[in-house]
Amino acid sequence: MASTVFRVDPASGEVTGTIDVPIMQAVGDGSLWGANGDAVQRIDPESGAVQEAIPIDRAQDVAIDGSEVWVLVSVRSSDPTLFYPIAGTAALRLIDVATNHVVGEPAALEDLQPIAIAAGEDGAWVADYDAGMLTRIEVVR
Description:
The protein is an all-beta fold and 141 residues long. Helix content is 0%, strand content 63%. It has one domain (3-140): YVTN repeat-like/Quinoprotein amine dehydrogenase (Methylamine Dehydrogenase, Chain H, 7 Propeller), CATH 2.130.10.10. The chain has strands at residues 3-8, 15-21, 26-28, 31-35, 37-43, 50-65, 68-73, 90-96, 101-109, 114-120, 123-130, 133-140. The strands form three sheets. Strands 3-4-5-6-7-8-9 form a seven-stranded antiparallel β-sheet, with no helix packed on it. The radius of gyration is 16 Å and the shape is globular. 26% of the residues are buried.
């Protein structure tokens, strides 16, 4: 399923073009970024073409801070058909934008239903959803 990205002129606020991309969750380092199942895609903002597919199992969401792309890895389930999350199987991964490679070891999260990630100069924040409400935000560095 493709997403449409609108290019907007910041001076006038007018839409100057659109492109269709496979998925987009973050913008940074001259690229569009999106988690797509078992890979993170780096997408050319001019053409919408995937420039790189970086393999990461269970890639769920991405956030960018400078030269780091943070990837939220979803939990594994103990059942192949129903969602029974296994504590400790969610994680954060880092991608170096200069090399398009995953760097370092995964940072394990105890969250059962991590739903969102944001990044800033102090690290990454992960929001966990449990029992119908936001239950925790964790800063990871």
